[in-house]
Specification:
Length: about 160
């Protein structure tokens, strides 16, 4: 199974200037818990914004640059190859960025979305979640607090039959 995991603003905002546009510790903590022990698939720009392989995960980077290397990571040239590489994992995660999300949204089994209930100035966006294709199966809503500046929800979708 392959899951697309992302945090998005009210208008599908993902980021700006190759960086996150909010700090939500609860989402980061959940992301670490959910993806630990699994393959994570990402584009080169996303990898470079992180700067290092994430601990306790197998990092697969997608790039068209045939000479690209990243110590401790697997590098491949397409999303399809990345999914094949991660196929030995019972639940691989696609973690971004926008180009990869656009390519992957119709190839994955599950969407695991953190909805940040605020609009932001952004330059990259998550693709529209088509409710004719995706069915919401779980939602957990949380109010802002002293550590998390914005209200947010963790929402899970599966493909409709």
């Amino acid at each position: 199974m392959t899951t697309l995991i992302a945090a998005i603003g009210e208008n599908n905002e993902l980021g700006k200037n190759n960086d996150l546009i909010w700090h939500l510790p609860a989402d980061l903590k959940r992301f670490k818990k959910v993806t630990s022990g699994h393959y994570i698939i990402m584009g080169r720009n996303t990898y470079e914004s992180i700067g290092t392989p994430l601990p306790n995960r197998t990092t697969v980077i997608i790039t068209k640059n045939k000479n690209y290397t990243a110590k401790g990571c697997i590098v491949t040239d397409s999303l399809e190859n990345a999914i094949k590489i991660a196929d030995q994992d019972s639940n691989a995660y696609i973690i971004g960025g926008a180009q990869i999300y656009n390519q992957a949204i119709n190839l994955v089994d599950v969407l695991d979305i953190c909805e940040v209930h605020q609009s932001f100035d952004a330059d990259v966006y998550f693709p529209k979640i088509d409710t004719a294709i995706w069915k919401e199966i779980n939602r957990e809503h949380f109010l802002s607090d002293d550590k998390n500046k914005y209200d947010y929800s963790f929402v899970k979708y599966t493909k409709r039959n």
